[in-house]
Amino acid sequence: MIASMTGFARRETSGPWGTLVCELRSVNHRFLEASFRLPDELRGAEGELRSRLMRQLRRGKVDCTITWRRPQAAGGALEIDAQALERVLAAVHAVMRALREPGAAVSALEVLRWPGVLREDGATGEQLLAASGEVFAATLTELVAAREREGARLRELLGQRCAGLEALVAAVRARLPEVCARARTRLNERVAELTASIDHERLEQELALLLQRLDVDEELERLTGHIAEVRRVIGGGEPAGRRLDFLMQELNREANTLSSKSQDLETTRSAVDMKVLIEQM
Prior knowledge:
With 281 residues, the chain is of the alpha+beta class. It has eight helices and six strands. It has three domains: 7-75 and 122-149, Ribosomal Protein S5, domain 2, CATH 3.30.230; 78-112; 151-280, no CATH class. Helices cover 63% and strands 15% of the residues. The mean pLDDT is 80.
């Protein structure tokens, strides 16, 4: 079953730790490319979230945004990450020495504002990480479902276009005997207008060459085969984008050849209609 690469999903959840909102957007892309925008408190979960995404999606450019709003009456204990604080202070001193401004003032509030220095208590952090994993999983499931729904609609549209192409191929094939008969009649009429003697064996050779140039049986067979392959691909369970792209090129090539060989107005119109349907696919 084919699935679209475009989709959108959004989930929101709340708890004692606050409110989490997860949004996933997916658009077409040759490969799977994921980008994450997370609050600093959830940076440690990015690896696990990325792994979950790769297990369920194969292609598409996916943007994940998770926002966290603290509870309005937040009263949890705050902790200072001693290691992060030491790294920040060491960096501040190094910058002061490099600037040769030992007296430059850095307030404690500025240090506390640095990401990672000030954090919630451990229990709240663990709850927040667990909740982010749950809301991400729910959002990802919703995104997959949305892509599958759109894929089902695309499969239906492609099936309709295939049916239209098959009808046009059948119409062209049905006209082939009439086209060949008309070509033979035109040639005989022109020969009849000549006053000189005619080599009938040579005439039959020229007629055979003319009918060979007008013969489009091979193109019609290839079109039929490509249409059958499109139906098989859209009904399968593997990624179909690149294979369908190749099949569209081949269908267009055969329709162009059919149009260039045509000496019949109705056949030319059918070839043009084929190219319109292929372009829509």
